[in-house]
Give the backbone structure.
Amino acid sequence: MKKILNMFFTFFKIGSFTFGGGYAMIPLIETEVVTKKKWISKEDFLDIVVISQTFPGALVVNTSIFIGYRIGGLLGAVIGLLGVVLPSFFIILCIAVFFIKFRDYYYVDLVFKGISAAVPMLILIAVVSLSKSLKINYVNLIIILVTIASITFFNVHPVLVILLSGLYGVIFLGKKVK
Amino acid sequence: MSELIKVFLSFLKIGAFSFGGGYAMLPVIQREIVESNKWITSKQFIDIIGISQMTPGPIAINSATFVGFKVSGILGSIAATLGVVSFSFLLVSIANHYILKFKESYIMKAALAGMRPAMIGLIISVFLSLGRESYKDVKSVIIGVIILGLLLSNKLHPILVIVISGFLGIIFYSLLPI
């Protein structure tokens, strides 16, 4: 019981202090779970992160469920998930309640006008940093352009694009990654 | 009730089909909540991304909680958040038993090799559609350029970027007489 509580608070801490999500959260999880609490080994942790990356969904959610399983079975997995999700859940809930009331106030609106101009640039920067891990070749370039065209001009659902590109990878790129 | 189920299923789809975490989840989220179901407007979607940068936790959880609340209150946010993590939970539960098999699964690696460029194309599409929404006047373009400059020249923390852009919003839209 004590371990379960301890686990919950550890994951709650991870969920509370990591801004931006995704990869930013990985070092903090490592510090807490591997270095401080020694619940799992560093090798196991790395394996878990690698596998979690190949799964759909939020990286940190996948990782936390995985680690939870390793530490305390099914109950551990549920505790890991709750711990990491609840902080953002409560914070956003509070913001949503107030936000809907105050969103149209003059200065709040101005602040969000500024933020709205920054958001696409943050996304653009994410594109730049994600592209760094991608090889520049005709295949990749064509996939990128076809994707943009199918979404922007033909209104194709992103899920279809993801499925087809995954299928393409399985059929044509299997030898390269083997 | 039917609305709750719809929210749950929609976020289940988001959790099951968005690979890469973080901004890579935006394309499916945008399609589901803004375009297909019209639960929020593009402007509100940009607001949520901005807020997600300032609050801890994964963007998928943040947007699930926010949209769920907007559609049907606290129950809605619970339904949406459960939806977005359910598939992860299921998949990790399975993988936990067969962890080595997954580690060596070259089919998954091949699929990801195909998906990676498609993800970049999808995120660029999000940039294009949000950019159309955000940059409707000269002032927002100027703010965007300033932010892009800051992002490229210093590795500013996203929270700081959002705070700066909020100030720029007030300065440009209320103080400067252009």
Summary: Chain B has two domains: 2-134, 135-178.
